[in-house]
Amino acid sequence: MTGSVKSVVIGTAGHIDHGKTTLVRALTGVDTDRLPEEKRRGITIDLGFASMDALAPDQNPLRISFVDVPGHKLFIRNMLAGAGCTDAVLLVISAEEGVKPQTEEHLAICSLLGIHRGLTVITKADAVSPSRLEEVYSAVRTFLSGTFLDVDHARILPVSARTGQGLDELRGELISLAMKTVANNPDHLPRLPLDRAFVMKGFGTVVTGTLFSGELHVGETLALEPGNRVVRIRGMQTHGRTEEHVRSGSRVALNLAGIDVSEVNRGQTLVAPETLAAVTTIDVEASLLPASSNLRHRSRVHFHAFTSDTLATVSLYGYNAVEPGTDRFIRLRLDKPVALIPGDRFVLRQCSPAATIGGGFVLDAYPLANLRKARCLSWLEALKDASIEEQLFLRVGRRGTTGFTVRELMAETGMTREAIYRTTEPLVSSKRLLRVTDGTLLTSEAFAAAIESIVSRLKSAGINRSALKGQTALNTEIFDFVIEYLTCEKRLRLQGERVASPGAEPEIADEDLKLRTAIASIYEVAGLAAPATSEVAVSLGLGDADMRRLMTLLLRDKILVKMGLNALYIHHSALEQLRTRISELHGHTIDVARFKQITGLSRKYAIPLLEYLDRERITRKDKDQRLVL
To answer: SS3 of 351, please?
Structure first.
């Protein structure tokens, strides 16, 4: 059913006691003040939700969802949680009071969040004289001049929720506004930022939110970020109606199986499993409001995106402070992980005194560690105005000869697998990108660099293939791809396990080479669960002295790697596969038990391997947990 219903979400905005909740009730029949304290004090404290069903001009069903936000300055945090997922805004201004401080701040927040459609309503029109109403109308027109709610683009409607004055006209304008609202990009993976979590008797854990992108189906599995907690959709509703399937732009309530309500919080995000992960370091373009103060290097700010908020530390490119009314590339280090992708909007508020100072959008949610600032800044400048196709090219390009898998691109961009394949196809056809395998992309420049790295190390007498791979530091996929290419092009020759220049004479393998190859083969087949050297020596009939000598040669050529102090040796290819597998969990945390579950290994192997990943900066230990970097 939902597939034929166009759904849009409109958020209210405005000063406290200007009639937002009363207006929504007049339009929908729903009182969005649900908390006892809200009833007692007569003000909105937390988010409220209601909907209005209508028919579009083409007679197709239309569902307009309202997110009613608090107007009091003490509850700006809750207002931001509601405004972050709306398609348009209904700015409410009382005819009795006119434009007030929260009117100004709410409109600024909407602009910073990229909202560019809406309506302005002057409420309580029946409570003032015609001359006062005209005076307020004129003041509102002046206030909105130059904003996205300027009267040249959006109407200003006087209404009265008490008498019904102007409500029919407002409903018509809301329908027109909903029809102009464009659905979120279908090329993006599903994301549901959560704004509520509660227990419903007989059902268990229920969460609500606005489906920002993608589609959801009853029965499918999702992951809760941060934390990568797997849950299943047991049931689904939109404004009390049971649904089997919903699309982006819908207000949705999910009955979740596999999680207790105590483990769910506002600010978390439901995503498709093994796709997006919450992050703590982002590069952004930030804009400061003209009335804000300077933003200095290492400043602490409140960061708000969708329904999440956290403290963050500002890292400036260039260190000189950001001036009010200007734009700047900055890096934000978030105190708590948040699920973010490029293009996501955010708002910044200063800590003391509390005030909105600016906002912007995410450029990169996966900045490369240890990349020089000048190079990073240049890359961000190129990325900012690039087409989607060029953005993907830039993201693959900065990975150099490592290449970039489609799965990694999905996590970094939030795009679906199909969209990535479709968008990169022209780049592959023009040979600017090479598809090493179905899952890995490499730029032509990186391919040339990988070729040079191999060819420059070739010796006339040849070099062991594993040793050559270790010297080039290429991963197995890229290395094998380039070797196969060079072999086909007759720019090198394979002699068993040795790689030689095309004119090299075949080498007669000595006994040591055969034994080294045999030992390496045993460890390669064993993978991470490697045998003890004594077991290998017995199987090959080698004495202790010969085994030590051959193991030393294998370690020197980086074919085997020693783990810890317990004489545990692992083949380099197994370690490379482990690095790739764990790196795919970027932003997640794992402990020893989770690592053992992932690898199927006992503690004997798990501890030294985790210590290896720490040394290689794939993970970072924090008490009993490890963060995948």
So the answer is: coil
- Strand, helix or coil for residue 565: coil
Task: Count CA atoms within 13 Å of residue 117 on its CB side.
Answer: 16
Is the omega angle on the peptide bond into residue 367 within 30 degrees of 0, that is, cis?
no
Query: Are the C-beta atoms of residues 625 and 613 closer than 8 Å to each other?
Result: no
Tokens of residue 540, six digits? 């090959």
Q: What is the pLDDT of residues 442-495, one digit of tens each?
A: 999 999 999 999 988 887 667 878 788 888 888 888 999 999 999 988 888 887
Whether residue 178 has pLDDT greater than 90: no
Given the DSSP bridges, would you call strands 229-238 and 619-622 parallel, antiparallel or unpaired?
unpaired
Report the predicted TM-score, pTM, of the whole model to 2 decimal places: 0.77
* Rounded Cα–Cα distance for residues 104 and 122 (Å): 15
Of 188, 222, 185, the residue nearest 417 (C-alpha): 188
CA gap 164, 242 in Å, rounded: 31
When pLDDT is cut at 50, 70 and 90, the band that residue 35 belongs to is very low
Residue type, 110: C
User: At 592, is the secondary structure helix, strand, or coil?
Assistant: helix
Give pLDDT tens digits for 532-587. 899 999 988 888 888 888 888 888 888 888 887 667 899 988 888 888 888 878 77
**In this structure, what DSSP letter does residue 188 have?**
B
